[in-house]
Write a structure and sequence with these properties.
The protein has helices spanning about 1-5, 25-40, 45-70. The chain has about 80 residues and is an all-alpha fold.
Amino acid sequence: AGAARYTGGLSVGKFLKTVTYQECTPAASVEIGTICARQSRLERFEGHARACDLRVRKFGAASARQAADGPSSPSSPRSPTAGG
């Protein structure tokens, strides 16, 4: 009874699943994929390693295209009243 009073007992939050995500650049995806493929092979998870290899190929091509296009200029939204 004392623990329930201390933690507040059950709440809706106890039944919800927390989902998080991260974003990274194509170049970072290539680097992460390369490391993960190596780690997967060390642990003898060949299926995981192949999935990482696919990501490296996919994002490596995207990363190469971005590099070939050069740095992109940051776009800023223009409002009609700002003269633009």
